[in-house]
């Protein structure tokens, strides 16, 4: 899953969970059944999981292009500058 696919999966998950929460609340209220409300919401969570967790092809529309190992060796690795001077000491 690429970065944009992760963002899409997150957005789909949020929308579906909100929709199923509202639908389950309305269904539970109209039918007067807490059990029905919980079953509808549990079904929504299950469906949301089946849609957003697997790595479906539409989540991989923008794959990252990685360098080949041989190509990466041509470029120098960045060096971290380390200061030998400690705070509070004078030279």
From TrEMBL:
Subcellular location: Endoplasmic reticulum membrane
A single GO BP: protein targeting to ER
UniProt xrefs under Pfam families: SPC12
InterPro entries, per database record: Spc1/SPCS1
Gene Ontology CC entries for this record: signal peptidase complex
Chief location of this protein within or outside the cell: endoplasmic reticulum
This protein's record includes keyword Endoplasmic reticulum: yes
Keyword Transmembrane helix: yes
Transmembrane annotation, as ranges: 12-32, 38-59
Keywords (A to Z) from UniProt: Endoplasmic reticulum, Membrane, Transmembrane, Transmembrane helix
UniProt membrane topology term: Multi-pass membrane protein
Purpose of the protein: Component of the signal peptidase complex (SPC) which catalyzes the cleavage of N-terminal signal sequences from nascent proteins as they are translocated into the lumen of the endoplasmic reticulum. Dispensable for SPC enzymatic activity.
PANTHER family the UniProt entry points to: MICROSOMAL SIGNAL PEPTIDASE 12 KDA SUBUNIT, SIGNAL PEPTIDASE COMPLEX SUBUNIT 1
Family: Belongs to the SPCS1 family.
Protein name: Signal peptidase complex subunit 1
């Amino acid at each position: 899953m690429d970065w944009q696919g992760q963002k899409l999966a997150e957005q789909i998950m949020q929308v579906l969970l909100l929709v199923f929460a509202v639908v389950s609340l309305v269904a539970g209220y109209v039918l007067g059944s807490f059990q029905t409300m919980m079953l509808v919401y549990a079904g929504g969570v299950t469906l949301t999981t089946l849609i957003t967790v697997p790595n479906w092809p539409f989540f991989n529309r923008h794959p990252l292009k990685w360098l080949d190992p041989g190509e990466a060796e041509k470029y120098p690795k960045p060096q971290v500058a380390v200061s030998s001077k400690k705070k509070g000491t004078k030279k």
